[in-house]
UniProtKB/TrEMBL annotation:
Pfam families: HTH_20 (PF12840). It comes from the Archaea. It comes from Halopenitus malekzadehii. This is Helix-turn-helix domain-containing protein.
Length: 125
């Protein structure tokens, strides 16, 4: 299961972000998820096997680069879509010559924050 990045206050580690961005399949997923997509759509669009896709989504989730959105279907059940969750990723070096990563996120409106909370509650039930 992909984590909801809105619920995490800690920045991802530099190595986690680099590992995700160094993976060709992860980069393909990030290119395609400017708009929310289901796993099935990503499998077809990125030409990635299902089991591999979920591993890559987990890697991207750990790096807080992708977020999961659940929609409740009127007829029952829910649909999960995945969306890129950053505007910019910056890697810098400080005065002690240590590298760091900063992930800039798009602002969320009240409806999106509520949907994130609702999704998280659904996972805990």
């Amino acid at each position: 299961m992909v984590r909801d990045s809105a619920s995490f206050e800690d920045a991802p580690s530099l190595q986690t972000v680099l590992d995700a961005l160094n993976d060709a399949d992860c980069r393909a997923i990030l290119r395609e998820t400017a708009e929310p997509m289901t796993a099935t759509e990503l499998i077809d669009t990125c030409d990635i096997p299902k089991s591999t896709l979920y591993r890559k989504l987990e890697l991207l989730s750990d790096a807080l680069l992708v977020r999961e959105q659940d929609t409740i279907n009127p007829g029952g059940g829910r649909t999960t879509k995945y969306e890129r969750d950053f505007d910019d990723v910056m890697i810098s070096m400080d005065e002690d010559n240590d590298f760091s990563v900063t992930v800039e996120r798009p602002p969320r409106n009240a409806d999106e924050r509520l949907a994130d909370l609702w999704s998280k509650m659904g996972d805990e039930l």
